[in-house]
Amino acid sequence: MTIIIGLGNPGKKFENTRHNVGFTAIDKIAANFQFPIFNFQSSFNAEISQGEIANKKALLVKPQTFMNDSGKSVKKILSKNRDQVSDIIVIHDDIDLEIGKIKIIKERGSAGHKGVESIIKAIGNEGLVRFRIGIGERTHGPVHGSKKAMQIVLKKFTTEEQKTITETIIKTADALNSFVTDGLEKTMNKFN
Fold first, then answer.
1. pTM of the model
2. 10, 24, 43, 119, 162 from 40: Cα distances, Å
3. What integer best gives the mean pLDDT of the chain?
4. CATH assignment of 2-191, given 3.40.50.1470, 3.40.50.720, 3.50.30.10, 3.30.70.270?
5. What integer pLDDT is reported at residue 138 of this predicted model?
6. Which of 35, 44, 17, 41 is nearest to 156 (CA)?
7. Which of 66, 72, 86 is nearest to 43 (CA)?
8. Would you tell me how many other CB atoms lie within 10 Å of the CB of residue 133?
9. DSSP 41-60
10. Using 50, 70 and 90 to split pLDDT, how confident is the model at 18?
11. Distance CA 33, CA 65 (A)
12. Catalytic annotation on 113?
């Protein structure tokens, strides 16, 4: 089984913010592959949906902890399903990538992303595949300081940016399908 974790913050306040593109991507994947409606499972503190992608079992996960504590939820899910897990994929926003870009990586450091950092601390980095979705504003240049980063990641997309991010989310769902059917290397070559 492949476990696919989309990162975001729970609650209306954070809907459609840059930081929640992981949730948006998971919702798109669920729709594309006709997964059942997400159910909140309190034992994991996560919304979960189980289905299939390319005839392989997959578990879609939206942790309902806040972003910085995502690892707590992921650790509980993994400990219950460890024997069945073949791949773990984390889909998350990346302020260092321009909007519209996707970068797929394996076993790399968190690069300062607190949600990813939490997951690596909780379960380690071995075999961890990440789909990074660019949310960086085209005009801001390098981001220095966590206060500035927080201001950017909690902003909503402009109308123009929303069109770009919608296309990027579609591309992310395609990349996930490619990963399941063709493996990591081919997917990285095609989408990075």
1. 0.91
2. 12, 17, 9, 20, 27
3. 89
4. 3.40.50.1470
5. 59
6. 17
7. 72
8. 27
9. ETTTTEEEEEEEETTEEEEE
10. confident
11. 25
12. no
